[in-house]
Amino acid sequence: MLLPIFLAAIPDHRRPQGRRYGLEHLLLFSILAILSDATSYRKIQRFIAARLPQLNALCGLHWKRAPAHTAIRYALRGLDPVDVESAFRGHAAVLAGSPADRTLIALDGKTLRGSFDRFQDQKAL
Fold first, then answer.
1. Are the CB atoms for 49 and 98 separated by under 8 Å?
2. What are φ and ψ of residue 122, in 5° steps?
3. Strands of the chain, DSSP E
4. Using CB atoms within 10 A of its CB, is residue 120 exposed (0-12), middle (13-18) or buried (19+)?
5. Coil, strand or helix: which one is 116?
6. Residue 123, class by beta-carbon neighbours within 10 Å (0-12 exposed, 13-18 middle, 19+ buried)?
7. In degrees, to the nearest 5, what angle opens at C-alpha 13 toward C-alphas 11 and 19?
8. Using an 8 Å Cβ cutoff, are 124 and 47 in contact?
9. What is the three-class DSSP state of 122?
10. Over the range 79-92, which residues count as b (16 or more CB within 10 Å of their CB) and which as e?
11. Going by C-beta distance under 8 Å and a sequence separation of 6 or more, which residues neighbour residue 1?
């Protein structure tokens, strides 16, 4: 998996003595939880706990239990947004490939939402 490599580049602000869970995996699992509609630290913790065997197998981990919601909160709130943005931009650049390989498509948000011109009685172009 490519994303954990970029997440590993984000500096960990936690003291070395308190690092039971690696930051890159904690971030990856939090991202997966948020994509699965987790909207709080407790929901992220529940997501990880419910899927712990699969997540362990996916990443080659041996976590016995999911981190507490307070540990997740502490790890996520202490991140520097500039470092996180840099990691995601690096990941996106690798996924995008070289400029010659890209096909650009312009999308209009109103068209995607299904806007309708009632005066002309037609959908947005």
1. no
2. -150, 160
3. 116-117, 122-123
4. exposed
5. strand
6. exposed
7. 100
8. no
9. strand
10. beeeeeeebeeebe
11. 28, 58, 59
pTM value is 0.75
pLDDT tens string, the chain, 125 residues long: the values are 688 899 999 999 999 887 899 999 999 999 999 999 999 999 999 999 999 999 999 999 999 999 999 999 999 999 999 999 999 999 988 888 766 666 777 766 655 566 666 666 766 65
Q: Measured between alpha carbons, how far is 19 from 15 in angstroms, rounded to an integer? A: 7
Residue with tokens 């690696």: 22
The letter for the amino acid at 109 is: G
Beta strands 116-117 and 122-123, pairing class: antiparallel
Return the ∠ at Cα 21 (arms to 16 and 23), rounded to 5°.
Answer: 80
3-state secondary structure (DSSP) of residue 32: helix
